[in-house]
TrEMBL record:
This is ATP synthase F(1) complex subunit delta, mitochondrial. It is found in: Mitochondrion inner membrane. Residues 115-156 form the F1F0-ATP synthase delta subunit C-terminal domain. Component of the ATP synthase complex composed at least of ATP5F1A/subunit alpha, ATP5F1B/subunit beta, ATP5MC1/subunit c (homooctomer), MT-ATP6/subunit a, MT-ATP8/subunit 8, ATP5ME/subunit e, ATP5MF/subunit f, ATP5MG/subunit g, ATP5MK/subunit k, ATP5MJ/subunit j, ATP5F1C/subunit gamma, ATP5F1D/subunit delta, ATP5F1E/subunit epsilon, ATP5PF/subunit F6, ATP5PB/subunit b, ATP5PD/subunit d, ATP5PO/subunit OSCP. It comes from Sitophilus oryzae (Rice weevil).
Amino acid sequence: MAAIRSMSRLLTSRSLSSTAKRCYSEEMNFTFASGNQIFYDGKSVKQVDVPSFSGSFGILPKHVPTLAVLRPGVVSVYENEGAVKKIFVSSGTVTINDDSSVQIIAEEAHPVENIDLSAARDLLSKAQSQLSSAANDQAKAEAEIAIEVGEALVKAAE
């Protein structure tokens, strides 16, 4: 029993000392890419807001390391110069590392200003039609995903 307590204390003090050694920065190195475009490649930014299945959240320098799945929605990037870039993502991942670097890899991503509202509404309507005519569970699931993306596209374009 004493050996278990000693091991526990050793592991606890090692965990605490490795946590204290993390190299946090005042800047956030940001990389954001999708299959169709690279938006940021290691640029320093102030803040990034992302849509996640666990809820939307903001990322600042010194953010706790995190891995999250992106849901369809708008990623807002607050650049150091004061500009705010809004980019729609269909899905993807966000990785926040202990060195204050952040990577977003999106399945598809497009600047919000390039989204055509009428085309987004048409896409949503087609997805809703696909759901009503879905013949099996797979077709139903695919239509539900398309509806979720379509609704987020319409909301982003409005």
